[in-house]
Design goal:
Helix content: 55-70%
Radius of gyration: 28 Å
Largest sheet: none
Structural class: mainly alpha
Shape: globular
Order of helices and strands: HHHHHHHHHHHHHHHH
CATH superfamily of one domain: Cyclin-like
Amino acid sequence: MAVADTPNELPAAPLPLPKQSLYESSTQYKNWRFSPEQLAQSRRELNHAAVESLKKLLEQEEPGSTSSVHFLTAEEEHALVVYYARVIGSMCVRIGLSEEVEATATSYLKRFYLKNTVMDWHPMNVTITILFLATKTSNMPISLDYYVSKLPSGKTEAADVLALEFLVAQSLAFEFSVWHAHRALWGVVLDVQSIPEIDQESTKHTHSAALQHIRNSRLTDAELIYTPSQIAMACLYLADPHLAETYLSSKGSGNMLSVVQEAARMIERDGKGTDVGLVREIDLRLKTCKNPERVKGSKAYEARQAKVDAAADKKRALKATASVESRMSQDEMFGPSISLPGDTA
């Protein structure tokens, strides 16, 4: 029976993958964005684990001592971190550092305390390390000596700045690149100039006002929840709602307005920072519930230091043994070194 010829059919071409923006391929988008519920849960779990660990350490240090200790809550820890986010801004003004460095350092501080607790690492110590690191990762380095000379306490040494640098880098998963809302805002302002129905004279004032809202947003969780462009639009909306709505409409992004308004409400609500009186109270209580392993002179500190020293000694011994074995192996292969006439013993 004859089989009808069928034309050779080429396999259908695969559907093209949706184009991914540069931001969507960044580590920030993949690893440092959360929902408000995820952030709250993560902070609660971190705080609970820290308190349980500290109770054991404090009981070993002084049995029965934890009954009178009022450990910090997750909310109190966060309030202290927010206060030091504002301190970063003051330090940048004092030292003469750029908006880019300030924004980067603030992002690092928030990310660090998603992995660590203030009861282990006080934000004051972490902040001086983070800010210096941000000058390097933002490609705006300054000398360590100059940086130390500009720190307000007058008691900080160069070694103090560098002491926590590896811990900070490790906590950031060595992901130093940060996409900032102030850059996205500048892009929007430039784009606005191409829209004829917008009054160009008013945009300069609007940009300045929106930039202040951007700075306030650094005291909130906005960058851990929203994209830089969403934050930029939220700040533009706070500065000039009509301009923001007109711009979104011109771009066919009117459906984005609800997200922009949601972000704007967060920035307006939380962008004022932490009350200084509350910070003093939290910091005073922190002195009673600090990790004793970080307090010089405590039993826990000495025990931990002994372990660190023992591990270092073991590492040096293993290295020395490996070096000897390597030399012995070379002697077996090539024979011992030959002394030439005239060589001194």
